[in-house]
User: What shape does this take?
Amino acid sequence: MVARAQAAADTDVCVLVDAEIVLLPEIVNALDRFSKVDGDWFLVSLSRNVTDPRYQLADSGSHWVQADGKEVSFTELQEIPAEWSSSEGSDRGLIMAWNNPSSALHAGVLPSFLYGRGAQNWWLAHEVLSSEMRLFFDASSLVLGLYPESISAMQHVMASSKNGRLPSVSWEYGVNHHLAAVYGSYCCRSPARRFPMLHRVVKQSEDYMLSKVDTLVSSDFFISKQGNAHGVDSLRKKQNVSLSGYLHGCSSETSAPDLPYSLSMLLDLVADENGSVVLGVAGKSYRDMLMSWACRLRRLRVTNFLVCALDHETYEFSILQGLPVFRDPLSPTNVSFDDCHFGTKCFQQVTKVKSRIVLEILRLGYNVLLSDVDVYWFGNPMPLLYSLGLATFGAQSDEYNETGPINLPRRLNSGFYFARSDNATIIAMEMIVKHAASSGLSEQPSFYDVLCGENGTNRIGEDRCLEPNTNLTVVFLDRDLFPNGAYKGLWEKRDVRATCKELGCFIIHNNWINKRRKKVHRQMVSGLWDYDPTSRQCLQEWSAQNDGAIPFV
Assistant: This one.
């Protein structure tokens, strides 16, 4: 939202405010006065937290009334005691405004806050102050807005466990605090910088007056009606709210949060309305490809995904990238960085982790779409896969011949499949895991041999199998919609994206090619890459001018 505001070239002043805040007329006067200041500025104001039973919002929402129904004047609202403002550590009721959007707000690097929630507001305010690129004003005493606690308290309680702000004692709050410290100066004073100046704004008569909080000099300032800065000898002391305690009261050292999150807790957070999740599994050798995969899902608004980290390095990396991740303690420890491709012993070990994790998730009552991170998504296939029905297992076919059966022996690809949490699928997955554990091969042959029978004895027609013990139907997915890396030579096409669009592809698998470097190169040169490893940010091909619309990309 801030980036889109910064891209609005025709805007003089940007205001970022929570939807539940009731803005008062004073904000129009204040912003009009501040717009006359010569230079870049950033204004922050804590809204007054209305908890007094004397003041309630009228049913119409147009004005405030006392307990007896009498309308409350603007002057009375301004006199709400300071102790009724937002509690320390909360970003509720925070109003931020700045001018000249074409100029940078701060010199920091934006963290990938976990799940997009947490300490962003305080981080942004602190970075603007610390970067010393703009005049920083604390206008909390002006009472620019009211935060109606009586209206939003229940919403806050309900949202904090799912999609809202996070309580200060939560695991995610700690992670966000850690992210902010790693990526910027949040709660950390940098000795390399001059101590920043925070100007506190108060109102006296029709003038807006400023004093310097945490100042290195003794002079005070005020803004006259003409918007010019002048020195004054003193400032009448008034009871007001200050951000200085929030912005400079933190410890100089920020410790890492208490980790990890359990698998069951993550599943409860990310699963969609059908109880389905998308699972990606990756180790340190594929972490850039993991991020490109995750960035792509985010752009497609696929939010029900989670990551299984095969090693501690990938786990920590994923935490810092804001991914919902859990660590598999039974993963092999000797995962090679460059030599973990198809056919290697490393590959065999890693693939057997995937089926075991999928089985664990199925037993917890969730459906699983297992997608290798070298699978590029053009659209969300979940609705189509979910429509296959109960006791049906949908998997990608690895057959490369364009004609003939696609369910031939050993042509089931275990890098992209959808498994429902029903008895038939769970029993079949238990058989697969057991078969793979005693095999000297990867898990992929075990899928076919168990579900379709050795040499395809359980095949039905040209695109199905029927596992006889569980009556589980296996559907080999249409290759035009779910092509493998060798089908129709799609990866060799001049415009892979356009060709796949014509076919109606949901995904394309970057397989049938050995070596990690070759995979990454093929995906990058084809334009099917969504991550910049240098900045550790998702690539943004579409600007704010597209109004957030996502075309076929």
Summary: The first strand starts at residue 13 and ends at 17. The mean pLDDT is 77.
